[in-house]
Write the structure tokens for this entry.
Amino acid sequence: MSFMNQQTLIPHLFRTEYQKIVSVLTGLFGIDHIEVAEDIVSDTFLLASESWSIKGPPENPEAWLYVVAKNKTKDYLKRNAIFAKTILKEIAYTTTTFEELQIDLTKKNIKDSQLAMIFVVCHPCNSMEAQIGLALNLLCGFSPDEIATAFLTNKEVIYKRLQRAKEALRLQNVKITTPTAEEIKSRISSVLMTLYLLFNEGYYSSNQDITLRKDLCFEAMRLTYMLIENKQTNKPATNALLSLMCFHSSRFNARFNQIGEIILYQNQDTDLWDRELINKGEYFLNQAAQGNEITKYHLEAGIAFWHSFKIETGEKWKNILLLYNQLLIIEYSPMAALNRTYAFAKVYGNKEAIIEAEKINLPNNHLYHSLLGELYIEFDNIQAIAHFQNAFSLSKSSADKIIISNKIMECEQKINELNHL
Amino acid sequence: MNDFLLIFRADYGNIPKASAEELQERTQKWMNWIGGIAAQNKLTDRGNRLFPTGKIVRPDNIITDGPYMEIKEAILGYSLVKAVSYDDAVELSKGCPVLAFGGNVEVREISQILV
């Protein structure tokens, strides 16, 4: 920890330790008293920042936090006898008084509690949107303020969403216990879906704050890795999901220029691709290949794998096309339909691809018109311009509008050049 | 949109033996065709292929091997698609690779059993 100064140490520990202690305490108190757990841990961090700014950070800051959190919990129980009685009744241990109460902050119990919390947070009684909010709040230590910034909405909306989601868990009387094999089997896919959407929220969001977006991606990867570390949740699909996240995030730094504008895949500087993450992506993709199950994460990871080769081989786009075909057979999405058509053009040429593109018929989607514009560019610039203009008026983000208007200029230039011949 | 069953028929004798490479290309054509339907959000179920072997059960416990003694065409497989009309379903069937072997696609609207 010596490399961290006072300013970065506490925020760092807040990210890594806040949710660990909250998970353990909530596991102890039950979902009804989740706010008590959050308050105790917040208090612990408050004391840390006060005390460390005077005396300097302790030798082992994590252990310090754990001891203080334990003491604060016991103090809280002493001061709130009624609360203590209620929770002692609920606690499964044979504890009879709060002095004997074991607050187990060992590595193993932290891991178990976190796994239990992931399954609580991703409980199907809440909408996906609410699950993602809860995950950020309870598993990643994001404040409602930070979540609001990430979702480009205001703090009150997020605050209410979190309150309602926690209330729903209470009403369902969701128990925070290590999920059984049966529960894991029936719910792992919805857990993976939440983590997948959390990652996408960071990767594809229109939020300008790139650091925050990276944080979201990193948190999604951290939680997915936690599932891989646990034998019961280390499934092929989990590995496929992490592989997909590794491949995508390997290109994170190449996707933006210095002023935050998006750089399209074909124009990216491959030196900015993170080789280490690409290697990790390959590793987890191999792990995902065990068993017969092919999920959409497998297919998307496969597509991302082929994108990690900048060199255009015939094999590359044939494989990408095949994977998009398979992905669409499993689950339709407009994005996959558009990308499939792009891959189709790479294999069979633009003329054939235009026929395919017209069939998918997504007239209200700006990307649909951008794609058609792109396909027409080679041999009908007037058609291309018409499509790019449609795309321009349909697109909502200014980053997209810049890219599209550059394309229109490119087409106009080509028309002028032809006229001057 | 309604569901339509597409039944692919061909004479096995008309399907040329293929090298590994040609087989791969054939698979690719099927995948492109089915993927093209899926990309329009009109695929209900990709369906299955059938083995060329089969049995026919007739009254009086008469069981014969496959239907292929009498009729040359056999069912190779089936898929379920969504379409607004027969015309639409026929349009989807036009690119089916079975046509390249002189086969055909039978298009039948599904009549849902409501129980």
Observations:
- The helical segments of chain B are 20-39, 86-93.
